[in-house]
């Protein structure tokens, strides 16, 4: 992935790229985004507050809980209400960038914040932390399948791995199935993701299996819509050590009768160390992959579970829960 066109299109809060668009003329440059993920993501930056004409610098705004729902109003100037303008900007992004495969938002922003945003009463007292930025909220409503995350939360190794996994998987689906679903393409697509879904959420693995069992008897577009909703919801569950161990044990079943006693013991030991949090996932997976070369099985080789995101990111080289 060296050219812009080969990179995955991802929306981003513009200040995270180091551009001085914040209310005070500053930025929130995030080097992980610009120096690491930029190798794989083609960013589509938006600063909704600048886009709606608030200017730089500008007077700060905040979320206000009112009888008419959550509003975005000026702190010093309560008559300034940009709620509808920010929502309209989200609609413009949805129309202009339907190809997005993910979105990274700046946290703690009344426009871009997604999680635990503070809301205030009309007289300025803190009410709760149940708000969402007006731009982010509308965009998420209109693109409910889109993988989204806040930049600050990407510092958490498990959340980071989960978000990047979802972006790559969603992009894969957009390329393979969004416009041309057929029963064969759906089955082929999912056959690559079975062990990954098993690692993330076994109940979804069963549900998707049931859905695709009837794929030839139903309208392919309808099944595709149901599939992607189940698939993205499944991947939203973190692949825990328990889930990954479950998938590894199923894959290990293909080695039955092919390993000698020492090899079996070595593999069991590493799986157990991973399960106990002593070594990262890459350790048992590397050995399992090595042994599975003994099995000439294209279905196994094509599993995304081996490599759901670029190895260079090293997302499986750290111990997580
Ligand atoms: S958080 Fe959003 S609205 Fe605020 S400066 Fe960054 S991009 Fe602009």
Brief sketch in words of this structure:
With 321 residues, this protein is α/β, with parallel strands linked by helices. Helix content is 45%, strand content 13%.
Q: How would you explain this protein's 3D organization?
A:
With 321 residues, the protein is of the alpha/beta class. It has two domains: 4-155, no CATH class; 157-321, no CATH class. 45% of the residues lie in helices and 13% in strands. It has helices at residues 31-36, 48-51, 83-96, 134-142, 157-178, 183-200, 202-213, 220-236, 241-252, 261-275, 282-292, 298-301, and strands at residues 8-13, 41-46, 61-66, 69-74, 102-105, 117-120, 126-131, 148-150. It has a four-stranded parallel beta sheet. Helix 1 (31-36) links the parallel strand 1 (8-13) and strand 2 (41-46). Helix 6 packs antiparallel against helix 7, helix 6 (183-200) runs parallel beside helix 8 and helix 7 (202-213) packs antiparallel against helix 8. The chain is elongated and about 75 Å long. It starts with 7 loop residues before the first strand and ends in a 20-residue tail after the last helix. The mean pLDDT is 95. Bound molecules: iron/sulfur cluster. Iron/sulfur cluster binds next to helix 2.
Question: What labels describe this entry?
Answer:
single chain, 321 residues, alpha/beta, 2 domains, 4-stranded parallel sheet, 4-stranded mixed sheet, 12 helices, 8 strands, 13% strand, binds iron/sulfur cluster
């Amino acid at each position: 992935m060296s050219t812009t066109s080969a990179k995955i299109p991802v929306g981003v809060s513009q200040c995270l790229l180091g551009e001085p668009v914040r209310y005070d003329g500053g930025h929130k440059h995030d080097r992980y985004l610009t120096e690491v993920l930029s190798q794989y993501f083609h960013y589509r930056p938006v600063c909704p507050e600048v886009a709606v004409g608030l200017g730089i610098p500008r007077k700060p705004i905040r979320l206000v809980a009112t009888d008419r729902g959550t509003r975005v109003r000026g702190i010093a100037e309560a008559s300034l209400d940009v709620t509808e303008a920010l929502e309209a900007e989200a609609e413009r992004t949805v129309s202009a960038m339907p190809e997005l495969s993910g979105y990274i938002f700046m946290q703690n922003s009344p426009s871009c914040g997604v999680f635990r945003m503070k809301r205030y009463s009309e007289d300025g007292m803190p009410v709760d932390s149940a708000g969402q930025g007006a731009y982010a909220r509308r965009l998420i409503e209109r693109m409910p399948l889109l993988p989204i995350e806040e930049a600050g939360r990407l510092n958490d190794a498990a959340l980071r791995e989960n978000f990047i996994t979802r972006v790559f998987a969603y992009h894969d689906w957009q390329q393979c199935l969004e416009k041309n679903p057929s029963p064969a393409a759906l089955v082929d697509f999912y056959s690559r993701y079975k062990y990954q879904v098993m690692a993330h959420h076994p109940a979804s693995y069963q549900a998707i299996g049931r859905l695709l069992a009837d794929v030839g008897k139903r309208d392919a577009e309808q099944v595709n819509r149901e599939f992607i909703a189940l698939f993205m919801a499944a991947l939203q569950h973190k692949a825990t050590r328990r889930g990954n161990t479950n998938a590894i044990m199923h894959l290990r079943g293909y080695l039955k009768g092919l390993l000698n006693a020492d090899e079996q013991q070595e593999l069991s030991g590493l799986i157990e160390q991973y399960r106990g949090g002593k070594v990262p996932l890459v350790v048992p997976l590397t050995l399992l992959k090595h042994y599975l070369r003994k099995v000439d099985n294209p279905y196994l080789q094509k599993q995304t579970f081996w490599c759901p995101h670029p190895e260079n990111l090293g997302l499986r080289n750290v111990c997580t829960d």
